[in-house]
Design brief:
With 80 residues, the protein is of the alpha+beta class. The chain has a domain of 54 residues. The protein has a two-stranded parallel sheet with strand order 1-4. A two-stranded antiparallel ribbon has the order 2-3. Strand 2 and strand 3 form a beta hairpin. 11% of the residues are buried. The chain binds zinc ion. The site of zinc ion has 7 residues, from helix 2.
Length: 80
């Protein structure tokens, strides 16, 4: 058993068998590992990676800009 695992820096799950991500406690139980037997490398699971991309890509916000109330230069919301 290779005890090197990639741990998501957002939700702290670890990669298990390639595509599956499990809680660290579940992962340790499954492989009967002690915390000191696992070396964790930093990474991001697919879900969090997707979420992170949503947060960091301003271009995705501009597409939904039309649904946001327009604010005039004086800072007041225009209702007319
Ligand atoms: Zn994650």
């Amino acid at each position: 058993m290779d005890s090197t695992a990639t741990q998501c820096q957002f939700c702290w799950r670890v990669r298990d068998d390639g595509a599956r991500w499990s809680d660290l406690s579940v992962f340790m139980q499954k492989y009967n590992l002690q915390p000191h037997e696992i070396s964790l490398s930093e990474g991001y699971c697919p879900q969090c990676n997707e979420f992170y991309c949503l947060l960091t890509q301003p271009s995705l916000y501009s597409s939904s800009e039309m649904s946001v109330p327009r604010v005039s230069e004086t800072g007041q919301t225009q209702n007319t």
